[in-house]
UniProtKB/TrEMBL annotation:
Keywords: Membrane, Transmembrane, Transmembrane helix. It comes from Ktedonobacter racemifer DSM 44963. Residues 201-267 are annotated as: Disordered. It comes from the Bacteria. Residues 201-211, 232-241 have a biased composition (Low complexity). This is Uncharacterized protein.
Length: 267
């Protein structure tokens, strides 16, 4: 149990949990929903039937590959957690770990591809396989003629993901993502290739050859933001036009205009 708590095994643990969820959802939950539409001259009826993996495997046995790949991902994840050399032998431990990680990512991608292809073609496959109806009919009361008439009355047949397929999808995505993150962390060359290199991002303030660059938005630290002001030299007599000096006005002096005299009663 101590190996499950180690930080280096956290992504292996996520991969193991995802593979376990995918395997249990494949075996225990309805995997797909079979949607059919029956039309005749009298009525038109749309039906939906949940199907588990056992029923799906009759017309499409390739669906069992999904369970095998999920089981293999679970076993490899456990080996990566509990063994320093997952596959034994004299091969270096780091190389064996890389093999296991690439195997996990490949198994997850392949399982999702098989799942999508099988479910996409399941509707037409069931419609063209009368033995599927014999397997579904547990009582055996329906004759071959009634099954044939039912098949001919089906106008639309398709399949969609049910809860089991969605859980399987999420579980295998967890396997792929955790393995991919661990691969990036263990491969420094690949990790550096995905990161932006120094100098690869152009500097907007660096001008092109022959062109001035953009000025900075703010002056550099310590620089004077205002231009220096030099005092102007005194004007020499006769060097130009001399402006008359403005006399200083005393605000407390009496008015100098004789026409502005106070009224006679205040004199």
């Amino acid at each position: 149990m101590d190996a499950l708590k180690e930080r280096k095994n956290r992504y292996f643990l996520i991969s193991a949990i995802g593979a376990l969820i995918a395997l249990l959802s494949f075996l225990l939950f309805p995997f797909v929903t079979w949607n059919i539409k029956i039309s005749s001259s009298i009525f038109s009826l749309a039906l939906a039937f949940p199907l588990n993996a056992t029923l799906i495997s009759r017309p499409a046995a390739a669906i069992w590959l999904c369970a095998v790949l999920a089981l293999g991902a679970l076993v490899v994840s456990c080996l990566l957690i509990y063994r320093s050399r997952p596959f034994g032998g004299q091969t270096p431990a780091e190389t064996q770990t890389q093999w296991g990680l690439y195997g996990l990512a490949g198994a997850g991608v392949l399982a999702l591809i098989i799942q999508f292809i099988v479910v996409s073609n399941l509707g037409s496959t069931i419609k063209s396989d009368p033995s599927f109806f014999n397997a579904v009919n547990s009582t055996g009361s329906s004759s071959s003629s009634s099954i044939s008439s039912l098949l001919t009355s089906i106008t639309e047949s398709s399949a969609s993901y049910n809860i089991g397929a969605w859980l399987f999808l999420l579980g295998m995505l967890a396997v792929i993502v955790s393995a991919g993150i661990e691969i990036l962390q263990r491969d420094p060359k690949l990790h550096q290739a995905l990161l932006p290199q120094a100098g690869s991002v152009p500097n907007p303030y660096q001008g092109q050859p022959g062109q001035p660059g953009y000025p900075p938005a703010y002056p550099p630290v310590g620089a004077n933001p205002y231009p220096p002001q030099t005092p102007s030299s005194p004007q020499q007599p006769g060097s130009g036009y001399n402006y008359p000096s403005t006399p200083q006005v005393d605000p407390y002096a009496s008015p100098q205009h004789p026409e502005q005299q106070p009224p006679a009663e205040y004199r």
